[in-house]
Amino acid sequence: MVQMDGVERSSHSSSEAESATRKDHSTYNSGEYDDDGHPRRTGNLWTASAHVITAVIGSGVLSLAWSVAQMGWIAGPFILIIFAFLTYYTSLLLADCYRSPNPISGKRNYTYIDAVRTNLGPLQVRLCGFVQYTNLWATAVGYTITASTSMVAIKRSDCFHSQGDHSTCHVSNNPYMVAFGAIQIIFSQIPDFHRIWWLSIIAAAMSLSYSSIGLGLGIGKAFEGGHSHGTIDGIGIAHGAAQLSRGRKVWQIFQALGNIAFAYSFSAILIEIQDTLENNPPENRTMKKATLIGVSTTTFFYMAIGCLGYAAFGNSPPGNLLTGFGFYNPYWLINFANACIIVHLVGAYQVFTQPLFSLIENWASKLWPHSSFIHNSYAIYVPLYGLLPVKLFRLIWRTAFVLITTLLAMLLPFFNDIVGLIGAYCFWPLTVYFPVAMYINQQKVAPWTSKWVWLQLLSIICLVVSVASGLGSIEGIYQDLKHYTAFKTRY
């Protein structure tokens, strides 16, 4: 391990004026640096699309069959399409906020919070920061739960295969959460978002793989005879084993809305993804195309998996599609699909946590600008990677973050409820409210014009949806806690 004298690329907390002092005009012209003094961005349409697909297709896809089942064959697919449209539409608004005041040639906003600060002011920044970074942290908790669920599914699948379908095969997911956390401690030492493009491409490939497997298995089981293929109104109050009280059905519909919102959640890191793009063509144009590719791809899989999963299991769907008992054969294919989920979530965890890592490290750098503990880098050789720059503060802080996140996942291992709560919490403020408010400010949309009224009405409706889905998920967690013992629950 050797100390490094070079300065790593920051997460863009410095201003353009500060950046400009680092290099003279001739250096900018060399092509090694962008107009703001940061190392030249090399991202393109395909890397951005990979980031989007990695961020969007996550653990949320596994709960879609359950979500569609709560609403039935008409409302379920319709709600999926509505959420896709809302996500795409507000992402277009957000992409124009990367540069201000002009979306083509204005000053860069390196992060989501920078865009809010430029367009909405300091009070909104505090609200945005709290929502965005707690959402990123909560998503890391959710991904830890989901990855361990897939690891448990592999273990149980092997057990059922060797001991028979009627065996108990109970497995605790705690050791698997610890294992996933240990992997994330290692990957979390990657310095910044710009170094993980390759991880996003691998993760995107994995997400498409397990989604395709789930799709294929859903098709196969849906065409089997002898079971229900669902109903127009979904799980109701008179469907045998799936019977629900009227009140419980309403709560589960609310929770399903949160699950779908979570499945489409990536707005919190859209600006960070856009900041990886080269500026020719303009970043907002590339990002809009990447968003169209990403949302279109994921919506196709979401519709197929949600609907075919519902057709496969009818009104008795599993909360997690690939851990449903009916999918333990062929066991080797299920094991491969769950392995793909695990690999995907390793990458997705980093996509969502890198902005949070950067926030804390930039804050510490400003507070203690001369601290060797914070600023000094040491080069460690990592097989298959090369020299990895390591800072002691980064090593300790990121390791502590992963440990705390893993502990919280072990305390609340409720897949569907946690997914729904996260989706409800972040959907309105990050996907709708801030993009709409920033767009209105940047484009100078006059109050009470038709466009202003449409945008405000959209925001209000989505707020109501977020509140309802959040209440549904909280009620679900309350019901789960009645039958749960911390660290002792087995599956």
From TrEMBL:
It comes from the Eukaryota. This is Uncharacterized protein. It comes from Diphasiastrum complanatum (Issler's clubmoss).
